[in-house]
């Protein structure tokens, strides 16, 4: 099999890239290790920056999102028993959209299949070859029929943190990374939203986040120990812990309901040293990880593939490789901005095991500043809704 761009991974990065390329008249094939049903049911992120929503419109995959996504014009920071609104819209003129990642993946998969583009499920990629030379690059993968090969001009590794592309790129130096001494416990609950907007709560028992999915579904998270297990947390204990960390508004507590799903998410920061070697490029979680506090993971993946799609268009349409050569530099500028923001928000809102009274006062002083100074709140809001397109 032969195509122009071979894409590894049908996550947000891979599927969105394929659709953007299709719009530019560039053919591609997406190879995905997992099955469609598994991809469409894995619960992950939920906050889309306005720039990501615009990109989904450009990819022709925004119809359901426009109907079912919820626009939020603010978020709340909760600490010391009170809630304080950050008015994202008043400060930046922009709003976020809450829409589940797996719903987005369903939309992108339908868009891909409707346009007749190549998308192969249950096809784990096993090796990448010849991307350094001048002939066709080769992706080796397995399907039900055995060992197969896909020849292409370019390979894009959108295969997540545990994928194969970053290893194939063969970094000479170790990546930049940081592991945090806590994880997030995430739940999906059958109950109406506890609040009209997201609540990020800083409490001495640990961080908590109240998010939503629909008028009947909530998504909530709380900081837990990295060696915690889902089984250690029966439903009543989860609700009590969340309620202890999130201050009630006017005496009204969280909307409890049946817990439909529980998972634990590790917290790390990670940036690969290089996003390119020869005609192999990395995008999304394959290239970088942020702790989820700033809701940046999915949005960064989208920003990476926007740059790549436009650089590949310049290659095929104008015969210019300048933008491809510049991809790493441009993408890394936004990546490091998001890395810093996610690290800062994580440091601000979590209970660190070794923190003493001084560190806690530092957190309180910054929280007080964020909710009292327009300048400080604007900086938070600008990062939260996402840096503008010309940022990289
Ligand atoms: P992925 O979504 O990881 O997709 C990569 C795809 O590549 C996968 O489908 C995988 O099966 C496939 N693949 C891997 N190896 C191979 C191979 N050898 N061959 C073929 N295919 C392969 N972000 C937030 O902002 N908020 C959250 O609450 C949040 N929760 C998360 C929870 C979990 C458990 C995880 C893992 C991530 C979470 N994230 C969250 C981050 C966000 O979901 C990611 O940043 C986003 O999914 C990145 O998209 P991606 O396409 O780069 O990678
Ligand atoms: C959600 C996830 C996040 O990481 C975040 O910062 C806000 C919301 C969510 O899943 O809804």
Automatic annotation (TrEMBL):
One Pfam family cited in the UniProt record for this chain: FAD_binding_3
Protein name: 4-hydroxybenzoate 3-monooxygenase
Annotated source species: Chromobacterium fluminis
Keywords of the record: Oxidoreductase
Cited InterPro entries: FAD-bd, FAD/NAD-bd_sf, PheA/TfdB_FAD_monoxygenase
NCBIfam families, per the entry: PRK08243.1
Annotated signal sequence range: none
Taxonomic path: Bacteria, Pseudomonadati, Pseudomonadota, Betaproteobacteria, Neisseriales
Record domain FAD-binding: where: 2-341
């Amino acid at each position: 099999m032969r195509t122009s761009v071979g894409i590894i991974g049908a996550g947000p990065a891979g599927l969105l890239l394929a659709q953007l390329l299709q719009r530019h008249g560039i053919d591609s094939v997406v190879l995905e290790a997992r099955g469609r049903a598994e991809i469409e049911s894995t619960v992950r992120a939920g906050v889309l920056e306005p720039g990501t929503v615009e990109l989904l419109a450009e990819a022709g995959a925004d119809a359901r999102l426009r109907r079912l996504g919820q626009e939020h014009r603010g978020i709340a920071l909760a600490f010391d028993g009170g809630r304080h609104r950050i008015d994202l819209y008043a400060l930046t003129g922009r709003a976020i959209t809450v829409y589940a990642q797996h719903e987005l993946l369903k939309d992108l998969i339908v868009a891909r299949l409707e346009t007749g583009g190549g998308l192969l499920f249950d096809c784990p990629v096993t090796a990448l070859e010849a991307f350094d030379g001048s002939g066709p690059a080769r992706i080796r993968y397995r399907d039900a029929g055995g060992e197969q090969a896909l020849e292409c001009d370019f390979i894009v590794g959108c295969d997540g943190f545990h994928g194969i592309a970053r290893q194939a790129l063969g970094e000479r130096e170790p990546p930049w990374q940081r592991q945090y001494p806590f994880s997030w416990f995430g739940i999906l609950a059958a109950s109406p939203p506890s609040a009209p907007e997201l609540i990020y709560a800083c409490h001495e028992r640990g961080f908590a986040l109240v998010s939503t999915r629909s008028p009947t579904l909530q998504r909530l998270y709380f900081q837990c120990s990295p060696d915690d297990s889902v089984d250690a947390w029966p439903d009543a204990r989860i609700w009590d812990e969340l309620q202890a960390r999130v201050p009630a508004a006017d005496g009204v507590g969280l909307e409890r309901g049946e817990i439909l799903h529980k998972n634990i998410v590790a917290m790390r920061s990670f940036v690969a040293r290089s996003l390119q070697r020869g005609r192999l490029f990395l995008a999304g979680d394959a290239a970088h990880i942020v702790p989820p506090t700033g809701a940046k993971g999915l949005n960064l993946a989208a920003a990476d593939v926007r740059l790549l799609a436009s650089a590949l268009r310049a290659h095929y349409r104008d015969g210019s490789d300048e933008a491809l050569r510049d991809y790493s530099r441009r993408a890394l500028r936004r990546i490091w901005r998001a890395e810093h923001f996610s690290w800062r928000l994580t440091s601000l809102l979590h209970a660190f095991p070794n923190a003493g009274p001084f560190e806690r006062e530092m957190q309180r002083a910054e929280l007080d500043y964020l909710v009292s100074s327009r300048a400080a709140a604007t900086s938070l809001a600008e990062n939260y809704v996402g840096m503008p397109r010309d940022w990289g």
